[in-house]
Write a structure and sequence with these properties.
The structure is a homodimer.
Chain A lengths: L14 E9 L5 E12 L2 E7 L3 H9 L1 E6 L3 H9 L7 E4 L2 E4 L4 E17 L2 E17 L10 H15 L4 H21 L2 H19 L1
Antiparallel strand pairs in A: 1-2, 1-4, 2-3, 3-8, 4-7, 5-6, 7-8
Helix pairs in contact in A: 3-4, 3-5, 4-5
Chain lengths: ~210, ~210
Protein backbone atom coordinates (compact mmCIF):
# COMPACT_ATOMS: atom_id res chain seq x y z
CA UNK A 1 0.00 0.00 0.00
CA UNK A 2 1.30 3.47 -0.88
CA UNK A 3 1.11 5.86 2.03
CA UNK A 4 -0.14 9.41 1.59
CA UNK A 5 -0.63 12.23 4.09
CA UNK A 6 -4.15 11.06 4.89
CA UNK A 7 -2.72 7.69 6.00
CA UNK A 8 -0.85 9.72 8.65
CA UNK A 9 -4.23 11.01 9.92
CA UNK A 10 -3.64 14.44 8.38
CA UNK A 11 -6.63 16.34 7.00
CA UNK A 12 -6.69 18.77 4.11
CA UNK A 13 -6.58 22.40 5.23
CA UNK A 14 -5.37 21.69 8.76
CA UNK A 15 -2.21 23.13 10.21
CA UNK A 16 0.09 20.78 12.12
CA UNK A 17 3.02 21.30 14.47
CA UNK A 18 6.02 19.28 13.33
CA UNK A 19 9.81 19.24 13.47
CA UNK A 20 11.44 20.17 10.18
CA UNK A 21 14.91 18.84 9.48
CA UNK A 22 17.22 20.44 6.92
CA UNK A 23 20.87 20.34 5.94
CA UNK A 24 23.16 23.26 6.77
CA UNK A 25 25.63 24.60 4.23
CA UNK A 26 28.45 22.67 5.93
CA UNK A 27 26.49 19.39 5.64
CA UNK A 28 25.48 19.18 9.31
CA UNK A 29 21.83 18.56 10.29
CA UNK A 30 19.41 21.17 11.62
CA UNK A 31 16.04 20.65 13.32
CA UNK A 32 13.36 23.18 14.28
CA UNK A 33 9.66 23.06 15.27
CA UNK A 34 7.56 24.49 12.43
CA UNK A 35 4.00 24.72 11.16
CA UNK A 36 3.05 22.50 8.23
CA UNK A 37 -0.25 22.85 6.38
CA UNK A 38 -1.70 19.80 4.63
CA UNK A 39 -2.94 20.85 1.18
CA UNK A 40 -3.76 17.46 -0.31
CA UNK A 41 -2.68 13.80 -0.18
CA UNK A 42 0.86 14.70 -1.33
CA UNK A 43 1.06 18.49 -0.93
CA UNK A 44 2.10 20.63 2.03
CA UNK A 45 2.90 24.26 2.71
CA UNK A 46 5.77 24.94 5.07
CA UNK A 47 5.32 28.21 6.97
CA UNK A 48 8.60 29.83 7.96
CA UNK A 49 9.38 33.15 9.61
CA UNK A 50 12.06 35.33 8.10
CA UNK A 51 15.32 35.08 10.01
CA UNK A 52 15.27 31.44 11.11
CA UNK A 53 18.08 29.01 10.42
CA UNK A 54 15.74 26.62 8.67
CA UNK A 55 14.62 29.25 6.16
CA UNK A 56 18.16 29.78 4.82
CA UNK A 57 18.50 26.03 4.30
CA UNK A 58 15.12 25.61 2.59
CA UNK A 59 15.75 28.63 0.34
CA UNK A 60 19.12 27.23 -0.74
CA UNK A 61 18.29 23.51 -1.03
CA UNK A 62 14.51 23.59 -1.80
CA UNK A 63 14.39 20.41 0.27
CA UNK A 64 13.35 19.43 3.79
CA UNK A 65 12.03 16.54 5.86
CA UNK A 66 8.96 16.81 8.05
CA UNK A 67 8.96 14.72 11.23
CA UNK A 68 5.72 14.10 13.14
CA UNK A 69 6.13 13.57 16.85
CA UNK A 70 4.46 14.19 20.21
CA UNK A 71 7.74 14.00 22.13
CA UNK A 72 8.01 17.13 24.32
CA UNK A 73 11.80 16.92 24.67
CA UNK A 74 12.39 16.49 20.93
CA UNK A 75 10.36 19.67 20.30
CA UNK A 76 12.13 21.52 23.10
CA UNK A 77 15.69 20.60 22.05
CA UNK A 78 14.82 21.45 18.45
CA UNK A 79 13.87 24.96 19.44
CA UNK A 80 16.46 25.74 22.10
CA UNK A 81 19.49 24.28 20.32
CA UNK A 82 19.39 21.06 18.32
CA UNK A 83 18.70 17.44 19.30
CA UNK A 84 21.90 15.39 19.88
CA UNK A 85 23.44 14.30 16.55
CA UNK A 86 22.58 10.67 17.37
CA UNK A 87 18.89 11.60 16.97
CA UNK A 88 19.32 12.31 13.24
CA UNK A 89 19.04 9.72 10.51
CA UNK A 90 20.83 10.24 7.18
CA UNK A 91 18.36 10.29 4.29
CA UNK A 92 18.74 10.51 0.52
CA UNK A 93 18.16 14.30 0.50
CA UNK A 94 19.31 15.28 3.99
CA UNK A 95 18.19 14.15 7.45
CA UNK A 96 15.12 12.99 9.33
CA UNK A 97 14.66 12.21 13.02
CA UNK A 98 15.13 8.61 14.18
CA UNK A 99 12.40 8.70 16.81
CA UNK A 100 9.69 10.44 14.81
CA UNK A 101 6.23 8.82 14.67
CA UNK A 102 6.28 9.47 10.91
CA UNK A 103 8.40 11.42 8.44
CA UNK A 104 8.29 12.55 4.83
CA UNK A 105 10.35 14.43 2.28
CA UNK A 106 9.26 17.79 0.86
CA UNK A 107 10.46 19.29 -2.44
CA UNK A 108 9.64 22.99 -2.83
CA UNK A 109 7.98 23.89 -6.14
CA UNK A 110 6.62 27.33 -5.36
CA UNK A 111 7.41 30.07 -2.84
CA UNK A 112 5.24 32.93 -1.59
CA UNK A 113 6.03 35.84 0.71
CA UNK A 114 3.36 37.08 3.16
CA UNK A 115 3.90 40.41 4.94
CA UNK A 116 1.67 41.19 7.89
CA UNK A 117 1.58 43.70 10.73
CA UNK A 118 0.75 42.32 14.16
CA UNK A 119 1.24 43.22 17.84
CA UNK A 120 4.94 42.49 17.37
CA UNK A 121 5.44 44.82 14.40
CA UNK A 122 6.29 43.81 10.83
CA UNK A 123 6.09 40.06 10.32
CA UNK A 124 7.37 38.33 7.19
CA UNK A 125 6.35 34.72 6.58
CA UNK A 126 7.47 32.57 3.68
CA UNK A 127 5.12 29.88 2.42
CA UNK A 128 6.91 27.02 0.68
CA UNK A 129 4.45 25.01 -1.41
CA UNK A 130 5.91 21.54 -1.67
CA UNK A 131 5.50 18.10 -3.19
CA UNK A 132 5.59 15.28 -0.65
CA UNK A 133 7.47 12.01 -1.27
CA UNK A 134 8.90 9.09 0.65
CA UNK A 135 6.32 8.94 3.47
CA UNK A 136 7.29 6.66 6.36
CA UNK A 137 5.00 5.76 9.22
CA UNK A 138 6.72 4.28 12.28
CA UNK A 139 3.86 4.47 14.77
CA UNK A 140 0.38 3.84 13.39
CA UNK A 141 -1.65 4.81 16.45
CA UNK A 142 -0.21 8.33 16.57
CA UNK A 143 -2.04 11.50 15.54
CA UNK A 144 -0.27 14.48 14.02
CA UNK A 145 -0.15 17.42 16.42
CA UNK A 146 -2.82 20.03 15.74
CA UNK A 147 -3.37 22.88 18.19
CA UNK A 148 -7.08 23.39 17.45
CA UNK A 149 -8.40 20.83 19.93
CA UNK A 150 -6.00 22.27 22.55
CA UNK A 151 -7.60 25.66 21.97
CA UNK A 152 -11.13 24.27 22.21
CA UNK A 153 -10.39 22.58 25.54
CA UNK A 154 -8.81 25.75 26.94
CA UNK A 155 -11.72 27.84 25.69
CA UNK A 156 -14.14 25.47 27.45
CA UNK A 157 -12.15 25.74 30.68
CA UNK A 158 -12.34 29.55 30.39
CA UNK A 159 -16.05 29.39 29.64
CA UNK A 160 -16.78 27.22 32.66
CA UNK A 161 -14.88 29.61 34.94
CA UNK A 162 -15.85 33.06 33.70
CA UNK A 163 -19.12 33.32 35.62
CA UNK A 164 -17.51 33.01 39.02
CA UNK A 165 -14.41 35.04 38.06
CA UNK A 166 -13.91 38.32 39.94
CA UNK A 167 -14.64 41.45 37.82
CA UNK A 168 -10.93 42.33 37.44
CA UNK A 169 -10.29 38.87 35.97
CA UNK A 170 -13.06 39.06 33.36
CA UNK A 171 -10.99 41.21 30.99
CA UNK A 172 -8.16 38.67 31.18
CA UNK A 173 -10.60 35.89 30.26
CA UNK A 174 -12.00 37.95 27.38
CA UNK A 175 -8.52 38.70 25.99
CA UNK A 176 -7.54 35.07 26.31
CA UNK A 177 -10.70 33.97 24.48
CA UNK A 178 -9.82 36.27 21.56
CA UNK A 179 -6.32 34.84 21.30
CA UNK A 180 -7.58 31.23 21.45
CA UNK A 181 -10.18 31.99 18.78
CA UNK A 182 -7.49 33.47 16.52
CA UNK A 183 -5.34 30.33 16.83
CA UNK A 184 -8.26 27.90 16.36
CA UNK A 185 -9.40 29.74 13.22
CA UNK A 186 -5.88 29.63 11.83
CA UNK A 187 -5.01 25.99 12.51
CA UNK A 188 -8.35 24.21 12.83
CA UNK A 189 -10.87 22.45 10.61
CA UNK A 190 -14.53 23.28 9.97
CA UNK A 191 -15.75 21.63 13.17
CA UNK A 192 -13.17 23.39 15.36
CA UNK A 193 -14.24 26.73 13.88
CA UNK A 194 -17.91 25.90 14.44
CA UNK A 195 -17.16 24.89 18.05
CA UNK A 196 -15.23 28.08 18.83
CA UNK A 197 -18.10 30.21 17.48
CA UNK A 198 -20.56 28.43 19.78
CA UNK A 199 -18.19 28.89 22.73
CA UNK A 200 -17.72 32.61 21.99
CA UNK A 201 -21.49 33.19 21.85
CA UNK A 202 -22.01 31.42 25.18
CA UNK A 203 -19.04 33.30 26.64
CA UNK A 204 -20.65 36.67 25.72
CA UNK A 205 -23.71 35.67 27.73
CA UNK A 206 -21.80 34.35 30.75
CA UNK A 207 -19.29 37.20 30.98
CA UNK A 208 -22.17 39.62 31.57
CA UNK A 209 -23.96 37.33 34.02
CA UNK B 1 -7.35 -9.93 23.94
CA UNK B 2 -8.57 -8.12 27.02
CA UNK B 3 -8.27 -4.37 26.70
CA UNK B 4 -6.95 -2.24 29.51
CA UNK B 5 -6.36 1.52 29.78
CA UNK B 6 -2.86 1.17 28.36
CA UNK B 7 -4.37 -0.34 25.18
CA UNK B 8 -6.15 3.02 24.78
CA UNK B 9 -2.73 4.73 24.80
CA UNK B 10 -3.25 6.03 28.33
CA UNK B 11 -0.23 6.29 30.62
CA UNK B 12 -0.13 5.92 34.39
CA UNK B 13 -0.13 9.27 36.19
CA UNK B 14 -1.32 11.32 33.22
CA UNK B 15 -4.41 13.45 33.27
CA UNK B 16 -6.77 13.24 30.27
CA UNK B 17 -9.64 15.36 29.04
CA UNK B 18 -12.72 13.22 28.43
CA UNK B 19 -16.49 13.39 28.34
CA UNK B 20 -18.15 11.73 31.32
CA UNK B 21 -21.66 10.39 30.91
CA UNK B 22 -23.94 9.75 33.86
CA UNK B 23 -27.62 9.05 34.52
CA UNK B 24 -29.81 11.75 36.05
CA UNK B 25 -32.28 10.91 38.83
CA UNK B 26 -35.12 10.85 36.27
CA UNK B 27 -33.25 8.33 34.10
CA UNK B 28 -32.19 10.79 31.38
CA UNK B 29 -28.55 10.94 30.23
CA UNK B 30 -26.07 13.66 31.13
CA UNK B 31 -22.68 14.44 29.53
CA UNK B 32 -19.94 16.82 30.65
CA UNK B 33 -16.23 17.34 29.82
CA UNK B 34 -14.12 16.25 32.79
CA UNK B 35 -10.57 15.41 33.80
CA UNK B 36 -9.72 11.74 34.27
CA UNK B 37 -6.44 10.57 35.78
CA UNK B 38 -5.09 7.15 34.81
CA UNK B 39 -3.85 5.39 37.96
CA UNK B 40 -3.13 1.94 36.55
CA UNK B 41 -4.33 -0.49 33.86
CA UNK B 42 -7.85 -0.60 35.35
CA UNK B 43 -7.93 2.33 37.78
CA UNK B 44 -8.89 5.98 37.25
CA UNK B 45 -9.59 9.00 39.38
CA UNK B 46 -12.41 11.25 38.25
CA UNK B 47 -11.84 14.89 39.27
CA UNK B 48 -15.08 16.82 39.77
CA UNK B 49 -15.75 20.32 40.99
CA UNK B 50 -18.42 20.85 43.64
CA UNK B 51 -21.64 22.13 42.14
CA UNK B 52 -21.68 20.35 38.78
CA UNK B 53 -24.57 18.22 37.56
CA UNK B 54 -22.28 15.25 37.04
CA UNK B 55 -21.13 15.27 40.66
CA UNK B 56 -24.66 14.78 42.01
CA UNK B 57 -25.12 11.79 39.70
CA UNK B 58 -21.78 10.20 40.57
CA UNK B 59 -22.36 10.69 44.30
CA UNK B 60 -25.77 9.04 44.09
CA UNK B 61 -25.04 6.23 41.61
CA UNK B 62 -21.28 5.64 42.19
CA UNK B 63 -21.21 4.87 38.47
CA UNK B 64 -20.16 6.68 35.30
CA UNK B 65 -18.89 6.11 31.77
CA UNK B 66 -15.77 7.79 30.39
CA UNK B 67 -15.80 8.63 26.67
CA UNK B 68 -12.56 9.46 24.87
CA UNK B 69 -12.93 11.75 21.89
CA UNK B 70 -11.20 14.54 19.98
CA UNK B 71 -14.47 15.86 18.53
CA UNK B 72 -14.64 19.63 19.24
CA UNK B 73 -18.43 19.85 18.88
CA UNK B 74 -19.05 16.89 21.20
CA UNK B 75 -16.96 18.59 23.90
CA UNK B 76 -18.65 21.94 23.28
CA UNK B 77 -22.24 20.64 23.40
CA UNK B 78 -21.40 18.62 26.50
CA UNK B 79 -20.32 21.76 28.32
CA UNK B 80 -22.88 24.28 27.05
CA UNK B 81 -25.95 22.08 27.26
CA UNK B 82 -25.95 18.39 26.37
CA UNK B 83 -25.36 16.52 23.10
CA UNK B 84 -28.61 15.60 21.26
CA UNK B 85 -30.23 12.51 22.82
CA UNK B 86 -29.46 10.53 19.64
CA UNK B 87 -25.74 10.79 20.55
CA UNK B 88 -26.19 8.64 23.66
CA UNK B 89 -26.02 4.86 23.72
CA UNK B 90 -27.83 2.89 26.45
CA UNK B 91 -25.40 0.79 28.46
CA UNK B 92 -25.83 -1.75 31.27
CA UNK B 93 -25.14 0.87 33.96
CA UNK B 94 -26.20 4.10 32.25
CA UNK B 95 -25.09 5.76 29.02
CA UNK B 96 -22.04 6.20 26.83
CA UNK B 97 -21.56 8.28 23.69
CA UNK B 98 -22.11 6.62 20.31
CA UNK B 99 -19.35 8.49 18.51
CA UNK B 100 -16.61 8.19 21.12
CA UNK B 101 -13.19 6.87 20.03
CA UNK B 102 -13.27 4.64 23.12
CA UNK B 103 -15.36 4.31 26.26
CA UNK B 104 -15.27 2.50 29.58
CA UNK B 105 -17.31 2.05 32.74
CA UNK B 106 -16.14 3.34 36.11
CA UNK B 107 -17.32 2.06 39.49
CA UNK B 108 -16.42 4.34 42.41
CA UNK B 109 -14.77 2.56 45.35
CA UNK B 110 -13.33 5.48 47.25
CA UNK B 111 -14.01 9.21 47.48
CA UNK B 112 -11.75 12.06 48.61
CA UNK B 113 -12.42 15.75 49.08
CA UNK B 114 -9.72 18.30 48.24
CA UNK B 115 -10.14 21.91 49.38
CA UNK B 116 -7.89 24.51 47.84
CA UNK B 117 -7.71 28.28 47.64
CA UNK B 118 -6.87 29.76 44.27
CA UNK B 119 -7.28 33.06 42.38
CA UNK B 120 -10.99 32.30 42.17
CA UNK B 121 -11.50 31.81 45.91
CA UNK B 122 -12.41 28.57 47.69
CA UNK B 123 -12.31 25.58 45.38
CA UNK B 124 -13.65 22.17 46.34
CA UNK B 125 -12.72 19.18 44.20
CA UNK B 126 -13.94 15.65 44.71
CA UNK B 127 -11.67 12.79 43.64
CA UNK B 128 -13.56 9.60 42.82
CA UNK B 129 -11.18 6.63 42.81
CA UNK B 130 -12.73 4.06 40.52
CA UNK B 131 -12.42 0.55 39.13
CA UNK B 132 -12.55 0.41 35.34
CA UNK B 133 -14.53 -2.27 33.45
CA UNK B 134 -16.01 -2.91 30.04
CA UNK B 135 -13.41 -1.05 27.93
CA UNK B 136 -14.40 -0.55 24.31
CA UNK B 137 -12.11 0.81 21.62
CA UNK B 138 -13.83 2.01 18.45
CA UNK B 139 -10.93 3.83 16.81
CA UNK B 140 -7.50 2.31 17.30
CA UNK B 141 -5.38 5.13 15.86
CA UNK B 142 -6.74 7.72 18.30
CA UNK B 143 -4.83 9.14 21.24
CA UNK B 144 -6.54 10.20 24.45
CA UNK B 145 -6.56 13.96 24.88
CA UNK B 146 -3.83 15.23 27.20
CA UNK B 147 -3.17 18.96 27.50
CA UNK B 148 0.54 18.68 28.35
CA UNK B 149 1.82 18.64 24.76
CA UNK B 150 -0.51 21.58 23.98
CA UNK B 151 1.17 23.48 26.80
CA UNK B 152 4.66 22.58 25.59
CA UNK B 153 3.92 23.82 22.06
CA UNK B 154 2.44 27.06 23.37
CA UNK B 155 5.39 27.56 25.71
CA UNK B 156 7.77 27.09 22.75
CA UNK B 157 5.83 29.66 20.71
CA UNK B 158 6.11 32.09 23.65
CA UNK B 159 9.80 31.34 24.01
CA UNK B 160 10.51 31.97 20.33
CA UNK B 161 8.71 35.34 20.47
CA UNK B 162 9.75 36.82 23.80
CA UNK B 163 13.06 38.29 22.62
CA UNK B 164 11.48 40.56 20.01
CA UNK B 165 8.42 41.37 22.16
CA UNK B 166 8.03 45.01 23.22
CA UNK B 167 8.80 45.66 26.92
CA UNK B 168 5.13 46.10 27.86
CA UNK B 169 4.37 42.66 26.40
CA UNK B 170 7.10 40.84 28.34
CA UNK B 171 5.08 40.72 31.55
CA UNK B 172 2.18 39.15 29.63
CA UNK B 173 4.53 36.48 28.26
CA UNK B 174 5.96 35.83 31.72
CA UNK B 175 2.48 35.44 33.28
CA UNK B 176 1.41 33.16 30.48
CA UNK B 177 4.51 31.00 30.93
CA UNK B 178 3.65 30.57 34.64
CA UNK B 179 0.12 29.46 33.83
CA UNK B 180 1.29 27.00 31.13
CA UNK B 181 3.87 25.55 33.51
CA UNK B 182 1.20 25.06 36.19
CA UNK B 183 -1.02 23.14 33.75
CA UNK B 184 1.82 21.02 32.31
CA UNK B 185 2.96 20.04 35.80
CA UNK B 186 -0.58 19.06 36.75
CA UNK B 187 -1.52 17.03 33.68
CA UNK B 188 1.78 15.93 32.14
CA UNK B 189 4.22 13.04 32.43
CA UNK B 190 7.89 13.05 33.42
CA UNK B 191 9.10 14.17 29.98
CA UNK B 192 6.60 17.02 29.73
CA UNK B 193 7.75 18.26 33.14
CA UNK B 194 11.40 17.99 32.13
CA UNK B 195 10.67 19.88 28.89
CA UNK B 196 8.82 22.72 30.64
CA UNK B 197 11.73 23.16 33.07
CA UNK B 198 14.17 23.51 30.16
CA UNK B 199 11.85 26.00 28.46
CA UNK B 200 11.47 28.07 31.65
CA UNK B 201 15.26 28.28 32.10
CA UNK B 202 15.77 29.41 28.51
CA UNK B 203 12.86 31.86 28.87
CA UNK B 204 14.55 33.49 31.89
CA UNK B 205 17.62 34.16 29.74
CA UNK B 206 15.70 35.45 26.72
CA UNK B 207 13.25 37.67 28.62
CA UNK B 208 16.21 39.72 29.91
CA UNK B 209 17.96 39.82 26.54
Amino acid sequence: MTLNLYSLNMDKGLHYEAIVTTQNEDGTPNAAPMGVICKGPDQVVLRLHEGSHTIANVKREKKFYVNLSRDPLLFTYSLISNPPSTEFKKEKHGFSLKNADASFFGQVHHEKKVEKKDAMGENVTLMFHSQVQDIKQYKTESEPLNRAICGIIEALVNLSRVKRAPVEKKKEYTDRMKEISRVVNRVGGVEHKEAIELIKKEFEIRVKG
